[in-house]
Amino acid sequence: MLFGRFKNRVPSPDEALKGRPEPEYTVPERHTVLGTALQGPYPEGLEIADFGMGCFWGAERVFWTTDGVWTTLVGYQGGSTPNPTYEEVCSGLTGHTEVVRVVFDPSKISYEALLKRFWEAHDPTQGFRQGNDTGTQYRSAVYTHSHAQAATAEASRTAYQQVLTSSGLGEITTEILPATDRPFYPAEGYHQQYLDKNPGGYCGIGGTGVKLSDPGGGSCPTGITPAGS
Fold first, then answer.
1. Coil, strand or helix at 119
2. N or C: which end of the chain has fewer CB within 10 A?
3. Residue 8 has what pLDDT?
4. pTM of the prediction?
5. DSSP conformation letters of 177-203
């Protein structure tokens, strides 16, 4: 069975589904909670952050409730198949992981602070799973949009690993890679703001319980410090 082959490894481009030149579906124009444009145009000065942290339904809610975030949308990223469908991503044959795209105002919230939310809201040590959700599409990932984002993400991973290790937890498996050549493909409309449309819906993400203090204090990389230090 092909799916079984790729439950625990990402397929190579040659092994992945070929996809299609255009998406098979349309995406709503507006965010159901924030009222903002999902795919733009975005106001000048805003920045984009992409995070994979398990099932994207709960991941998106983490960020649309965060002050300074202008809009959020969910999609697929990090794989080889252009314009995949949800069913294809779940097969493991695209190489994509489920991602939330966060469009934020850096004058109101820093990329560091978004990373704090990212690390604390899921367990980044689980490899190709998140909780009871298993498969490569649930892997932890950060896809960066600048050299500054990449440096900040790498430093924050180092800082959080120190806290996890001191708490007796394992190694972070999060992949940190440039978004260049890793296009973001918006997911189907019913996935967008799913937990707003379905308040009692499934949310499979959960953190380790290990916290980081707010950016800006202490001497750890990028100003992110272990809680209580």
1. helix
2. N
3. 86
4. 0.92
5. EESTTS--EEPPGGGTTHHHHSTT---
Q: Which residue's entry shows tokens 């709503």?
A: 28
Q: Which residue from 209, 185, 157, 178 is spatially nearest to 97, judged by alpha carbons?
A: 185
Largest CA distance in the chain: 51
| Amino acid identity, position 225 | T
Non-local CB neighbours of 87 within 8 Å, separated by 6+ positions: none
Give me 63's structure tokens. Answer: 């960020």
Cβ proximity of 88 and 3 under 8 Å = no
Amino acid at 212: L
203 is catalytic: no
The β-bridge relationship of strands 133-134 and 129-130 is antiparallel
Q: Which of 55, 90, 203, 220 is catalytic?
A: 55
State how far the Cα of 114 lies from the Cα of 104, in Å rounded to an integer: 9
pLDDT of residue 212: 81
